[in-house]
Automatic annotation (TrEMBL):
Species whose genome carries this gene: Runella slithyformis (strain ATCC 29530 / DSM 19594 / LMG 11500 / NCIMB 11436 / LSU 4)
Spans annotated as Disordered: 1-20
Family according to the record: Belongs to the peroxiredoxin family. BCP/PrxQ subfamily.
Protein's recorded name: thioredoxin-dependent peroxiredoxin
UniProt xrefs under InterPro entries: AhpC/TSA (IPR000866), Peroxiredoxin_AhpC-typ (IPR024706), Peroxiredoxin_BCP/PrxQ (IPR050924), Thioredoxin-like_sf (IPR036249), Thioredoxin_domain (IPR013766)
Active-site residues annotated for this sequence: 45
Annotated keywords: Antioxidant, Disulfide bond, Oxidoreductase, Peroxidase, Redox-active center
Pfam families on file: AhpC-TSA
Gene3D superfamilies in the record: Glutaredoxin (3.40.30.10)
GO cellular component, as recorded: cytoplasm
EC number from the UniProt entry: 1.11.1.24
Taxonomic lineage from the root: Bacteria, Pseudomonadati, Bacteroidota, Cytophagia, Cytophagales
Reactions performed catalytically: a hydroperoxide + [thioredoxin]-dithiol = an alcohol + [thioredoxin]-disulfide + H2O
Subunit structure: Monomer.
Amino acid sequence: MALQVGEKAPPFEAKDQNGNDIKLSDFQGKKVVLYFYPKDDTPGCTAQACSLRDSYDAMLAKGYAVLGVSVDSEKSHKKFAEKYHLPFPLLADTEHHIVEAYGVWAEKSMYGKTYMGTVRTTFIIDENGVIQEIISKIDTKNHAQQVLSNQ
C-alpha cells in the first residue's frame, strides 16, 4: 500500500554517515525533505545529492531539514558525503526498514534483468510529521529546484 499525501509519515531511526542516531521525531516542528536514492557515488545519485548541496542554504532558509536514505552502509555514506562535501545526513538503511516503510523498495529492471532496489522518491514532510508532497519523477540535476518550487 503506497503512502499518500496527507498521511502521517512512518517513524524511523537509523545511523547517519557519522554514526549518529537520527530519528524522524528529531525534526518535529521542522519541514523535512526525505529523499531516497539507489546508490552512493553513482552518476544520478551524485547529481541529485549535489543539487541539494548547492541549494542547501536556500533549503535551510525555507525551514527544511534534508535527509538522504539509501541501503548503503555508514562507511559508504561517509565516503560519498566527504567526497562531495554533503552538508546533510545520509541514513544507512542496510536492513531496509525505512525503504520498505515508505514503499520505495520495489522490483526494478535494467538490461532485461529484474531485481529489488530503491525507487528514487522524495517525501516532503511538514512540521507535524504529515506527508505534504511526494515527488516521484526526479530530475536529478535540478532536484533542489523541484523541492523549492513546491511551496
